[in-house]
Write a structure and sequence with these properties.
Blueprint lengths: L1 E12 L2 E13 L4 E5 L6 H8 L7 E6 L2 E2 L5 H11 E4 L11 H11 L5 H11 L15 H13 L5 E5 L7 H18 L2 E5 L3 H4 L4 E6 L2 E7 L2 H9 L1
Parallel strand pairs: 3-8, 3-9, 6-7, 7-8
Antiparallel strand pairs: 1-2, 1-4, 4-5, 9-10
Helix pairs in contact: 3-4, 3-5, 4-5, 5-6
The structure holds adenosine-5'-triphosphate and magnesium ion.
Adenosine-5'-triphosphate binds next to strand 1 and helix 1.
């Protein structure tokens, strides 16, 4: 369970303070699929980054299973990210000097996994890139790079997968492919999935849609996505 209370983020911008997140309170139970939607600048990426422990709030708290993360020391925060969080950036963020295989190996080697090489190969095969193991990011299409990013984010089976517009730079067929991968990870491993999207169809395949506006929660609704997912699987 992720518990967010009175989360506020203010930053200096153009000589004065701007409020990016304003008193956001919400709980995300384990295994939920959540879409975060809202206009550009409404604070979606900021919220995701705070949940990931990539940034620290001005005030308020974020706790995972009762453990406060917003005040953790840097080393504890790094362990929190390693053990609990997979993060998929909108712009892929692959390491350009490493091949697809080496990019996926990074978190596995950091975690000290002995069979890292086999696991990374298997993951890339799962995302349909078994023939692209030794390609560098520049030699991959956008959709292929995003699939490497999914494999990397999921390499250590994090209980929470955060994805910032994972299909934002992809055509609709490739985007659907990446979404199917994320939904399969959710289904097979019970991963909590929180994703930012501008795409209505994707939002409605989540169980819950949280809309932000001007840094505040504008609406928080449960969808009937499970029925729809069941229908599309038939
Ligand atoms: N480091 C920063 N310094 C100053 N302002 C920032 C910083 N990061 C974000 N902002 C501002 O905070 C607001 C929210 O940004 P955020 O990236 O969370 O929006 P978003 O909802 O993800 O938008 P988009 O849909 O365009 O990605 C924006 O107005 C942005 O300009
Ligand atoms: Mg954003």
């Amino acid at each position: 369970m992720i518990t967010i209370s009175h989360l506020t983020m203010r930053l200096a911008g153009g000589g004065h303070q701007i409020t990016i997140l304003d008193d956001v309170t919400l709980e995300i139970p384990d295994k939920q699929r959540v879409a975060i939607v809202g206009p550009s600048g409404s604070g979606k990426s900021t919220l995701l980054g705070l949940i990931a422990g990539l940034d620290r709030p001005t005030s308020g708290s974020i706790a995972l299973n009762g453990v406060e993360i917003s005040t953790m020391r840097e080393s504890a925060l790094a362990r929190y990210r390693r053990d609990h969080i997979g993060y998929i950036f909108q712009s892929f963020h692959l390491i350009p000097t490493l091949t697809a295989l080496e990019n996926v190996l990074v978190p596995l080697e950091l975690a000290g996994m002995r069979t890292a090489q086999d696991r990374a190969t298997e993951l890339l095969q799962t995302v349909g890139l078994g023939e692209r193991l030794h390609h560098y990011p520049v030699q991959l299409s956008g959709g292929e790079q995003q699939r490497v990013a999914v494999a990397r984010a999921f390499a250590c089976h994090p209980p929470i997968l955060l994805a910032d517009e994972p299909t934002g730079n992809l055509d609709s067929a490739t985007g659907q492919h990446v979404m199917n991968l994320l939904l399969a990870l959710h289904r097979d491993y019970g991963t909590t999935l929180v994703l930012v999207t501008h795409d209505r169809a994707i939002a409605s395949s989540m169980e819950r849609v949280i809309a932000l506006r001007d840094g505040r929660i504008e609406s928080d609704t449960l969808t009937d996505s499970d029925n729809r997912l069941a229908e599309s699987a038939q």
